[in-house]
Amino acid sequence: MNQYETVFILTPVLSDEQMKEAVKKYEDHLTSNGAEIVHEESWGMKKLAYPIQKKSTGFYQLIEYKAEGDLIADVETAFRRDERVLRFLTVKLDKHAVAYNEKRRKKAAEAENAPAAQTEVQA
């Protein structure tokens, strides 16, 4: 099983609930086809570098998962058919990228917990 990372941009006209529903649809699609979701991040609404379909912003979403290679074509076909998806990019991660992502997640978790620990000491 290989590890992949997919970033996709959803149209900004979606409500928060519709955006979460679209993300859940792709997570369910991956897991129902045998993929294991390692990590998922919502980057929120961001400005696009150039207009896509006359839109200048979009909801960015990242999903990191382990899957067989033949599943990628199926997922990308689903992205192409969905009018809510402006763009997507799937990357196969090598061992160095996997290690980097794990280190980055660990550092983010430590940073999240550190301010809480500091406020307890000060109080």
Describe this structure in words.
A hairpin with a 2-residue loop joins strand 2 (36-52) and strand 3 (55-67). This protein has one domain: Alpha-Beta Plaits (2-Layer Sandwich), CATH 3.30.70.60. It contains 3 helices and 4 strands. Helix content is 46%, strand content 39%. The protein has a 4-stranded antiparallel beta sheet with strand order 2-3-1-4. It has helices spanning 16-32, 70-81, 95-122, and strands at 2-10, 36-52, 55-67, 85-93. The termini are far apart. The longest helix is centred in the C-terminal third of the chain and has 28 residues, at 95-122. It is α+β, with helices and mostly antiparallel strands.
Chain-wise SSE layout:
Blueprint: E1 2-10, H1 16-32, E2 36-52, E3 55-67, H2 70-81, E4 85-93, H3 95-122
Antiparallel strand pairs: 1-3, 1-4, 2-3
CATH class category: Alpha Beta
CATH topology: Alpha-Beta Plaits
Q: How many structural domains in the coordinates?
A: 1
**Sequence stretches where pLDDT stays below 50 over 5 or more residues:** none
What's the gyration radius in Å?
17 Å
- Total count of strands: 4
Structure, briefly:
The protein has 123 residues and is an alpha+beta fold.
Task: Supply database-style keywords.
123 residues, globular, alpha+beta, four-stranded antiparallel β-sheet
